[in-house]
Amino acid sequence: MRRARGGLALLLLSLLAGGAGAAELRAGAVLGADADGFLRAEAPRPFRFPEDHGVKPAYRTQWWYLTAHFRDEAGQPYGVQFTLFRQGLRAPGREAPRASPLATEALWMAHLALTTPEGHAAEERFARDALALAGVHAAPFRLWLDDWILEGDGSAADHPFPGRLQATLRAGGKRYRLTLALGAARGPVLQGEEGLSLKSRETGSASYYYSYTRLPATLTLQAEGRTVAAEGLGWFDREWSSGALAPDQVGWDWLALHLASGHDLMLFRLRGADGEVAGVQEGTLVAPDGSQRRLAPDAYRFTPVPGARWTGPHGGAWPVRWRLNVPALGVDDVLSAVRPDQHNDLTVPYWEGMVCFEGDRDSCGYLEMTGYEPPTDGARASVE
After folding, report:
1. In a 3-state reduction of DSSP, which class is residue 27?
2. Is the peptide bond before 162 cis (omega within 30 degrees of 0)?
3. Taking Cα atoms as reference points, which of 128, 1, 112, 20 lies closest to residue 61?
4. Dihedrals phi, psi of 379, to nearest 5 degrees
5. C-alpha 65 chain-centroid distance
6. How far apart are CA 320 and CA 309, in angstroms?
7. How far apart are CA 194 and CA 289, in angstroms?
8. Coil, strand, or helix at residue 266?
9. Which pLDDT value is given to residue 100?
10. Are 146 and 133 in contact (CB under 8 A)?
């Protein structure tokens, strides 16, 4: 929304029924609701760094997204996803602030997912925008919710990286502590039209979106006295928006891919109920020298392989093999999930995980999919 990520943030944060202050969220930010005084992303704008790494309270929804894929010395795959969402409950200046230290103008939600050779697990956490329970500092760069912390080392004045992610989560009956060290970044890359990323053809249904597409990464994973080290690459997305998905859009597919050639590729497509593209599909290609170009829809094909689907716990049929064809790069291969079950079974379930080319296991990335199964009962209840 990834990121398409705008859709994920809107879908997740507008359907929550529990957690901190969700009654306010349910009343003010239902999917498709008016922006209620928030600014919308309607035209390209100049980006300012490091300021734009921080919170944009004038916009309703924003998110910071990190994915990273790794191999250990034995060639075994590992993957990490960390996401922080902020949802504004009311636009700045719409109401007088309340005196309580627990009063909040926004809610925070974080997702953390880990893929190992043994399995896949995901956790989510929520917090009010109060008492420093969660937040983002632009400079020095730091974002957190509880003890999930992503921060820069301060050596790059205008950019978040180098830096590191530190977090813990439970997977397969084990408690993991992970440290993800991130090197100097290539970027920022402005997605869409100079950073304006359309989600539908409706005015304001867009986000401001930029990425750091190729981050050298090292994973240190500790559990039950055992330490695993792995090397790989990370991808960081930053978006903010006040728009919503169009009524005919039911989900999306988003890909961030590191090619062994040194190219980076971002693709997303929004789908209608018939499974076809609804509204917008976008592509960005970043060359090894850091130059970028926007890909027209006819410059590539990214389609599910028929019959290659994993059935999730709620009955959804998730495509886990995709054919990618990019003639300009000489690419025509099948991307497959390193595990078919990289499904985040959270308040609103979605699939996000590590994928690699079957013909080139050194070309890997992250795929995110939504809308392949009905909302959970809890999500339905929250909008009734």
Report:
1. helix
2. yes
3. 1
4. -70, -40
5. 4
6. 6
7. 19
8. strand
9. 63
10. yes
The CATH homologous superfamily of the domain defined by 5-382? AttH-like domain (2.40.370.10)
Q: Which residues, 6+ apart, have CB-to-CB distance to 197 below 8 Å?
A: 6, 41, 191, 206, 207, 208, 209, 239, 282
- Write down the pLDDT at residue 6: 42
**Cβ distance 179 to 158 under 8 Å?**
no
The rounded distance, in Å, linking the Cα atoms of 187 and 24 is 37
Is residue 5 very low, low, confident or very high in pLDDT (cuts 50, 70, 90)? Answer: very low
What is the predicted pLDDT for the residue at 32?
34
Read off the pLDDT of residues 19-55 as tens digits, 9 standing for 90 and up: 333 223 322 332 333 457 899 999 999 999 999 999 9
Q: CA dihedral defined by 355, 162, 160, 147, rounded to 10 degrees?
A: 80
Tokens representing residue 147 in the block: 């003890």
- Position with higher pLDDT, 247 vs 189: 189
* pLDDT value of residue 198: 84
DSSP secondary structure letter of residue 160: -
**Contact between residue 233 and residue 363 where contact means Cβ atoms under 8 Å apart:** no
- Check if the beta carbon of residue 24 is closer than 8 Å to that of residue 383: no
Instruction: Tell me the H-state helices in the chain.
Output: 5-15, 22-28, 377-382
pLDDT of 227-250, one tens digit each?
A: 999 999 999 999 999 976 777 788
